[in-house]
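Lay summary. Proteins are chains of building blocks that fold into shapes, and those shapes determine what they do. In this project we predict the shape from the chain. Here is one chain we studied, written as its sequence of building blocks.
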Amino acid sequence: MSNQNMNLVIKTELRDRLFQSMSSLLKEKAELKQNIRNNSNDTEAEKDALFLELLEVIDTLDNLTTSLENSLEALPESHQRLPRAIGSIQRKLLMTLQKQDVYPIVIPEKEAVDVNLCRILESENRDDLPERSLVKILKTGYMNGDKVLRSAEVIVAKSTSPQHIVTGK
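And here is the predicted shape, written in a compact code that computers can read:
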């Protein structure tokens, strides 16, 4: 008898048990895939939350440095190196975040700001800059890879000259 021509006959009871086992394994596989996706999403959300907390620390250090630099003369001589020391801590935190693929958002000058990367908080009347171009960054935005971790908060230019409507003839 040839192996190719031999048909195997499986009893109905055994076939049903095999079918149930395969169905159970396929269902378990689908559940495991969903659990992996959920765990991955949870881990990503926790990581983003940690990054955002670290960015708040960086913002606080930046505000402290700016405040100290603005009142440097009033500080005792022994404290006048504080802004530089705080800036060093801030740079170390930023380098740690960069190792995790977290980078500040770069906003090109003289171009309309990208609303997917920035939150426009105010506009300032400026005829020396193109419409909706950057005037000032109030809060630096950050990316984690290709994802916006925190939008930049900005002030943009608003033209005061009347807009000319071009009509076609």
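What the prediction tells us: The helical segments are 12-70, 82-99.
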